[in-house]
Structures
1.
Amino acid sequence: MTHRTGLILDFGGVLTTPLLPAVLAFEQREGLAQGACITALYLDEEGARRTHDLERGAITQAEWNIAAAGSLGVAPDNLMGRIFADLRPETAMIKAAAAARRAGVSVGILSNSVGLDPWNLYDGYDMDQLCDAVVISERHGMRKPEPAIFQLMLDMLGKPAEACVFVDDTEQYLAPAAELGLAGVHAKDPEETIAQLETLLGVPLA
């Protein structure tokens, strides 16, 4: 087996704790029905379009907060920050990324943005120390799973797709990446993810 030499990581839900429990906790705090956020922000056509616009940088987080708050019937102040207030670093994955880099694997972060102001998902994470390249979707006017954003990440790492592994907690992004030649790992449990990466990369990460 030829081991891969590049590792591309999603951020939220991979290098942080899972997103869904944080969203459910927000709904409980706000007195919303379980699933209200998923329905209003992702399943509703207008809500999904708005979120995709945010990811591409076509609207600001503050604008998203106001519109999404209207859909949910909650206050708009720092809405994105309130939704994800319970997110914490996923320590095992952060350590695994650092171990991969020490072993000579090129590491990149490829993240669909949730806006950077007034709340910044990436605050407190020293991404320049953690990886070799960072692509935040809003800075480039595109989003996963568009092929161009994967290619941008590969160009920044200086690697062909066939040399890289892509890890994301959103399963629907894996197939488009695989079409480009990337090996995919669906991040559901850190221990399982790390075990799969050790096999694909050929280096110990735990």
Note: The radius of gyration is 17 Å.
2.
Amino acid sequence: MVPLGHIHAAYVRSHFGTAEMTLWDSPRRDEIAFGLVMATGGRPHARIGGLAASAISVHDGQR
């Protein structure tokens, strides 16, 4: 499971999510698995509370 979040602020609950990644027969002892996950927006039915994406200001970054 790879976690997803907002690109500019950590506490925007509408952008919390996960993406599932399956690797068959890997990684081995001398290998590293790297997963990159991107999304085009938040959840259709956002979680209640927290910071809204429209309310992000300069000081709401990665607290």
Note: The first strand starts at residue 2 and ends at 4.
3.
Amino acid sequence: MSLPELPRNSSRAEMRKALIRLRMEMHRQEIRHESAQLLQPLKRVRGMTQNLQDGFGIKHAPLWGVAAVTLLGFLTGKGAKSGGGLGTLTRLARLGTTLVPLIKLFAQSTSRKD
């Protein structure tokens, strides 16, 4: 922050304007500092997830997370109708159709590595 240059014979109005400019700059600096402090945990979490993905070599980690949540939801969730084997069969069919894109992606990534 650079201080404004004031002439030696500055009037009262010029001094007031300079003081207001200094206060405005101080408020800008405070806002920058506070926003940086508020965003620090978010940046730390983003860095950790990036390091985790890079460390394990996991590509498409958000897609894997969605697939895991979907799988858990289908396996542990209760259907609206709790009727015998047909409910289980429909649940497995829904699970299969939901996971087909993920399975295709996994198959493509393994074929590229070989």
Note: The two ends are 58 Å apart (CA to CA).
